[in-house]
Amino acid sequence: MPTDVRCLVETDEASAVVTLTGVLDLAGVSAVRDALLARLWGRPGPVIADLSRLRVVDPAARAVFDDVRREAADWPASALLVLDPVGAGEGGAPICATLDEAQAALADAPMAAVLNVDLAPSVGAAREARALVTDGCARWGVPDLAEPACIAVTEMVNNVVAHARTPMTVRVAPRDSSLHLAVRDHSPRQPAFAGLAPLTSTGGRGLLLIDTVARRWGSTSLPDGKVVWCVLYADDEAAFRA
Q1: pLDDT at 194 (0 to 100)
Q2: What whole-number distance in Å separates Cα of residue 211 and Cα of residue 79?
Q3: What is the pLDDT of residue 201?
Q4: If you write DSSP's letter for every residue of the chain in order, what string do you get?
Q5: What's residue 236's pLDDT?
Q6: 145 and 234 in contact (C-beta within 8 Å)?
Q7: pTM score, whole prediction
Q8: pLDDT at residue 103 in the model
Q9: Contact, 191 vs 229, CB < 8 A?
Q10: Cα 46 to Cα 88: distance, rounded to the nearest angstrom
Q11: N or C: which end of the chain has fewer CB within 10 A?
Q12: CA-to-CA distance for 179 and 153, rounded, in angstroms?
């Protein structure tokens, strides 16, 4: 997708490579961020950002790749690799010097296990999401996470039904001893967590429940909506049950 600062972001649905060409400065950071996050959600599994034909005229603009990696780090089955022959500073997104090196890194990574379901914002959406999560926990050998994951995904989906009121996609994937959940909708409205709800309140406890069962959770804005995600750990559930 072209931007107004002569930076072109090219994607191919059949490839994990996103090619950036032209010139990137601070004015183009937002468009690049949005394009990369949209691609990371649209294609589960690692994505390579190829910068070999991109000239970054402001060193601060290059931080967008580290920022994108950080924003999507806890999404289910999501990772960003950077192909940059010039390289960059320490830390941040993993950097490969050549396309062969980047593709070898992908080949060495285990195939992402992931389940998705597209849902309408209807009363039965949470039930379908729970079925998906329960199936995933059974497949991936983390049955003890089924109950807390169902609590979290129910609240995430119900929030879409009650507030966003748009079609949604529920995604779940394992990673080591953790389970990653996400719900993507098409509303810019971000969830707001104000802490404990008053005892007299009849609502507002959804995010509190997610905060209780998940070690981490958050929301990432996209050009046409957002991704709300959370991460649950088997160790946390075992400690709770003990």
Answers
A1: 52
A2: 24
A3: 37
A4: -B-TTSEEEEE-TT-SEEEEEEEE-GGGHHHHHHHHHHHHHHS-EEEEEEEEEEEESSGGGGHHHHHHHHHHTTSTTEEEEEE-SS--SSSSS-EESSHHHHHHHHHHSPPPP-EEEEE-SSTTHHHHHHHHHHHHHHHTT-GGGHHHHHHHHHHHHHHIIIII-S-EEEEEEEETTEEEEEEEES--PPP---SSPPTT-SS--HHHHHHHH-SEEEEEEETTEEEEEEEEEHHHHHHHH-
A5: 81
A6: yes
A7: 0.88
A8: 85
A9: no
A10: 20
A11: C
A12: 12
**Cα–Cα nearest to 18, from 73, 67, 82, 75:** 82
Distance CA 163, CA 207 (A): 13
State mean pLDDT over 149-162.
Answer: 96
Residue 193: pLDDT over 80: no
Token readout for 94 is 């993993």
